[in-house]
Write a structure and sequence with these properties.
Structural class: mainly beta
Order of helices and strands: EEEEEEEEEEE
Strand content: over 45%
Shape: globular
Oligomer: single chain
Number of helices: 0
Distance between the termini: 40 Å
Helix content: under 10%
Radius of gyration: 13 Å
Length: 121
């Protein structure tokens, strides 16, 4: 069965950096576009970034563009999100998710349990 397991979340000070990882199993990882989505307390899911299956195309939400970088290692079935210059408003539960079709945005058919990122001094 499809499994997505995130890790790397932590408490970090404003201006700090984190790298999130998501290990995928149960499907052909290299065949799918993958997405990061986040959800802050009391708010709905927010699309963060999407990467194409071959890593050629990447898309970012305006709120994170220039600070976050999405990448993947198809040989390791792993998706990454490098987050720099973190702000308190980046505090959220971050999920990786599999897109069922090519493209970018919030659409997904499977997602992981999430990893918590808290940005606070």
């Amino acid at each position: 069965q499809v499994q997505l397991v995130e890790s790397g979340g932590a408490l970090v000070q404003p201006g700090g950096s984190l790298r999130l990882s998501c290990v995928a199993s149960g499907f052909t990882f290299s065949g799918y576009y993958m997405t990061w989505v986040r959800q802050a307390p009391g708010k709905g899911p927010e699309w963060v970034s999407t990467i194409s299956n071959n890593e050629v195309n990447k898309w970012y939400a305006p709120s994170v563009k220039g600070r976050f970088t999405i990448s993947r290692d198809n040989g390791k079935n792993t998706l990454y999100l490098q987050m720099n210059s973190l702000k308190p408003e980046d505090t959220a539960l971050y999920y990786c998710a599999r897109r069922p079709t090519p493209g970018w945005g919030n659409e997904y058919d499977y997602r992981g349990q999430g990893t918590q990122v808290t940005v606070s001094s």
